[in-house]
Design a protein that fits this description.
alpha+beta; about 50% helix; globular; six-stranded mixed beta barrel; about 20% strand
Length: about 800
């Protein structure tokens, strides 16, 4: 132990004698450690730790699917859920339907995320309330008591965490609900934003073709997930035969909850990010190893003297490794501090409703990971320099005056060159992968979406059923709203719809056209439906192709009309004009009066869906999105907008306020996050690689000062010296680029799922970053080479 403390003291003394080298080493390592700790903290929250539920491995998600229609994760209908629940012997099945709710009665109405759940939902999740109770079967039926469970965060915010919350009343969508329980602080399902739970009250007579329920189950004792999957598939097949009109072709999918939350695509993305930060750390280790090799050159005489005086080789190696580990711990400590900002930045770019994002934290597990990574890095960058320095040529070193501080042999130079090649190769891999992801992301976002995204403000309102029971009142309110919004200074057009692109709202229907009218329900084509106001297409700047837009006369009592998009028109009418033809769904037949351009509702990664537009005044809905086209900033539009709606209904909150650009950014969040992270890691890798090349070349120039002086003394020109040194740097950069290309060709194929139509072997990306990194490597060599050409031959010869 005394020897260890002595080695640590000597290591600190040695570092104090060369502070610049060790500061650079500590900072380089800290950056690599911080990147690894940041990503680990996220993956630990998502993948490495079990979900925070009792026996979480027995909790499953249950989906419908329909391979014939390419539906792989389809929600359940209420009757299908009830049949599965009652017939299954392997799974205790519960369900929920998401949605937000107006909460009024306070100073300011607000819209909160909520879920309607079956009475057994919390039993299936094995979650007990912090105070109060959960729902009873009697409350989960039509006409049951209006009760509500609230999240811990809402309890703190609205009731200051006091027990008086039990029995208090919340006004939800205009109806009084009694608070019967408060959920634990660590319960966040289906996401951290869900704050209100009310009874679902499923009814067996509901439409079997209407899929909106999310189902979750707990595999019963004695059963397995595979057994449950087989049983659910058998029951689903029976339902398909019993209800062929609605269930033909409908199957099932049973997944463990953790696999459903974090699917294969997410796990692949996580692995890519983890490999990327490991590359960053390896580049940092290569840099530090080169710095330590340079440092060892100045200590060769010291080490030789210690060896002559009796220090064994392993004693010297132990001393040098102790220095490396002390350096590693310092770099790890700084990396831990940097990872605090790293974690905050990572959380900031992640969607707020992403599952388990609240678990990302720098806890004891992250601290142990940081310690382990730091020590492993210390051994990685310290071993090679230590082994080299512990084998000095005693005769030549002791004969040398020590004025040059040079290693003298070629082995260290080859080792430094190998490290530089590794740095450049790994940096190129990260640059190419980041370039591919960024190119794929921009291709998706730059694709013509079918509507104009600029100067478009969006928001939602939902009219409570208690205050707006009849359709005439809904229509009157929405007409008045559009009229008043259009009068706001700076607003040029207003559109209202049940859903906007890039939001995931809306619903699909099976429809009939003259050529599909005789098909059974299960085989009829499907399309998405949007209920819109007459000004919607103008506000969104969606192009008209045929016919007309909706007008003020397209209201209840008039002929039902519809507008279809070109995708649907092309499918059934080819190049013919469909205006005047009929299309029907949900027992209503509509006359097609126009055709509009296709809209990429789900971004540039998917084709435009077939779409049917219906006048909002003919098919009113309570929950609508508003699109305002304005030349003003959102900050200028929102205050008068809130005042306007408050004047119309003081209990009506405005929510989900954002620009269309922000909606698109949020919708493409996964691809954007991947591109951002790899872009950051690639930038760090490039910086470290440039420093590595520059450091080695600068050291080589310093070591060859006497050689340069001799060459210049016997007639070599500055250009000859410049070419000699730059050629060496270009050779290292070229070999590194070739190695990086080989690795990139093997690695990039794993990115295919995230590239949105960009080839994982995109020649332009490979060539661009190869050239950039080669040029950067040459420039990093050129700077010390220019310095070498200014060497005074006499001074260099005196040094020799």
């Amino acid at each position: 132990m005394d020897r260890l403390f002595a080695d640590i003291r000597f290591a600190l003394f040695s570092m104090a004698r060369a502070p610049l080298i060790f500061v650079l080493a500590i900072v380089s390592l800290a950056v690599g450690v911080a990147a690894n700790t940041t990503i680990f903290s996220a993956l630990d929250a998502f993948l490495f730790r079990p979900l925070p539920y009792e026996n979480a491995e027995r909790i499953v998600r249950v989906w419908s699917n329909n391979p014939s229609k390419d539906w792989d994760h389809l929600s359940l209908s209420v009757p299908d859920y009830l049949d599965l629940r009652d017939r299954s012997r392997t799974v205790d099945l519960a369900a929920w339907a998401g949605g937000s709710m107006n909460v009024s009665g306070g100073e300011t109405p607000e819209r909160l995320q909520g879920s309607r759940v079956t009475h057994n939902f919390f039993r299936v999740m094995a979650v007990a309330p912090r105070i109060g109770r959960v729902f009873t079967p009697e409350e989960d039926v039509k006409g049951g008591a209006k009760v509500v469970l609230i999240s811990h965060s809402l309890w703190q915010r609205r009731f200051a965490g006091e027990p008086r919350a039990l029995g208090a009343t919340l006004l939800l969508n205009g109806e009084s609900h009694t608070v019967i329980g408060v959920l634990p602080a660590d319960f966040h399902f289906p996401n951290a934003e869900t704050e209100i739970f009310t009874p679902l009250r499923p009814v067996a007579s509901d439409d079997r073709g209407s899929h909106f329920l999310s189902a979750i189950g707990r595999v019963r004792a004695g059963a397995t997930v595979d057994g449950a999957s087989t049983e659910i598939a058998s029951i689903t097949a029976t339902l398909a035969s019993e209800h062929a009109a609605t269930n033909e072709g409908v199957g099932s999918l049973v997944q463990r909850l953790d696999r459903a939350m974090f699917d294969t695509t997410f796990r692949t993305a996580s692995a890519i990010c983890m490999v990327a930060v490991i590359f960053v750390l390896l580049i940092a280790c290569s840099n530090i190893a080169n710095l330590l090799l340079a440092r060892a050159a100045t200590r060769e005489r010291e080490i030789a003297l210690r060896t002559v005086l009796g220090a064994g080789r392993w004693r010297v190696i132990g001393q040098l490794l102790t220095e490396s580990l002390v350096l590693a711990l310092m770099g790890g400590a700084l990396g831990w501090v940097l990872s605090i900002w790293g974690v905050k930045g990572l959380i900031a770019i992640m969607p707020a409703d992403f599952p388990m994002v609240e678990r990302i934290a720098l806890d004891n597990r992250a601290l142990l990971f940081t310690l382990a990574v730091s020590l492993l890095a210390g051994l990685t960058f310290g071993l090679a320099p230590a082994l080299h320095a512990a084998r000095p040529d005693l005769g030549s070193v002791l004969r040398d005056s020590g004025t040059r501080g040079a290693i003298g042999g070629g082995r260290a130079g080859r080792m430094r060159s190998a490290f530089v090649i590794a740095e450049i190769g790994l940096a190129l891999v990260l640059l190419i992968c980041a370039g591919l992801l960024i190119k794929g992301y921009h291709k998706a976002t730059d694709t013509r979406l079918g509507f104009a995204t600029d100067h478009l403000a969006t928001m939602r309102i939902t009219l409570p059923e208690t205050a707006y029971q009849d359709t005439l009142r809904i229509i009157a309110f929405q007409d008045q709203l559009v009229s008043r919004l259009a009068s706001i200074p700076g607003v040029t057009s207003v559109g209202v719809a049940n859903a906007l692109p890039m939001t995931g709202w809306g619903y699909g229907v099976s429809y009939t056209t003259p050529d599909t009218r005789t098909l059974p329900d299960a085989k009829r084509p499907s399309a998405e439906v949007r209920m819109i106001s007459p000004g919607f297409f103008d506000a969104m700047k969606i192009e008209k192709k045929r016919g007309r837009f909706f007008g003020a006369g397209d209201r209840q009592g008039a002929v039902p009309v519809a507008i279809v998009n070109t995708a649907l028109a092309r499918k059934h009418w080819k190049d013919a004009d469909p205006t005047g033809a009929q299309i029907g769904f949900e027992d209503v037949t509509y006359e097609i009066v126009g055709v509009v351009d296709e809209v990429l509702e789900y971004g540039g990664t998917e084709d435009a869906p077939e779409m049917i537009y219906i006048p909002l005044a003919q098919r009113p809905v309570r929950s609508v999105a508003i699109a305002l086209r304005t030349d003003l900033a959102m900050s200028s539009v929102l205050p008068p907008l809130r005042d306007l709606i408050k004047g119309m209904d003081p209990n009506l909150p405005v929510y989900e306020m954002a620009t269309m650009e922000q909606l698109i950014k949020d919708w493409d969040g996964g691809d954007r996050i991947m591109a951002q992270l790899l872009g950051i890691f690639a930038g760090i890798a490039l910086m470290l690689a440039v420093l590595g090349v520059y450091g080695v070349m600068a050291y080589n120039v310093a070591q060859r000062t006497a050689e340069v002086g001799i060459r210049m003394a016997i007639g070599a020109q500055s250009g000859d010296i410049l070419k000699l040194i730059v050629r060496h740097g270009a050779t290292l950069a070229g070999i590194g680029v070739l190695a990086g290309l080989v690795i990139s060709l093997s690695v990039s194929r794993f990115l295919a799922a995230f590239l949105n139509g960009v080839s994982p072997f995109d020649v332009q990306t490979f060539a661009t970053f190869s050239v950039i990194l080669f040029v950067v490597g040459v420039v990093a060599s050129y700077i010390p080479a220019r310095r070498a050409t200014r060497v005074d031959p006499l001074t260099a010869l005196r040094m020799e």
